[in-house]
Pyridoxal phosphate homeostasis protein (Psychrobacillus lasiicapitis), 230 residues
Amino acid sequence: MTNVQQNLQQIKQHIQDACNRSERKVEDVTIIAVTKEVSVNRTKEVIATGINHLGENRPEGLKNKLDAISDNVKWHYIGTLQTRKVKAVINEVDYLHSLDRISLADEIEKRASSKVDCFVQVNVSEEESKHGLSIIEAEDFISELENYSRIRVVGLMTMAPNTDDHSVIRNVFRQLKALQEKIAAKQLIHAPCTELSMGMSGDYEIAIEEGATFVRIGTALVGKEREEIK
């Protein structure tokens, strides 16, 4: 059994436990393996375990993996996307997790060959070091996207603050869930907003307890390959 397989076993157990605590179904939570820091070979190890959702955060890294991997996987672009790089990325991915400004929406509308499933990035904690809209801004922003034929807002994304205080982390996730429910209740054709992308290696269990449907797991699953090589 590889390290990735062992890691996945442990992660699946933690997901099961989190779902039990929150009375949710395991099948309602999708693991995105964040492969941005590891090689093609390590990424193939991940795919061999049955995980078929992969996350990259740089156009160059995405292209490198796309050129080398022919498996039927779903690609998630999880990093900030510069407008000048939209052309290289947008028709190669299945999901974009970082839609946070009209200029980016304009470029997607211009460059996408078909409708793109997007998560609107919300900076719930309002930290200056993080990208995304405030909770107050997000609702109006999503309304503005109604006339963009190439964008479908499938959900919201956030990153928790860098803290060991679980109550602070939980509150951030809880606020995003409340916003997601508020938008979903509007039943907007262009923004069904049924999904929540939140939770990473250190806090995915809390995220699941608060309603995450996609968790973005890197180190806890794929390891720190650069350190292992040393």
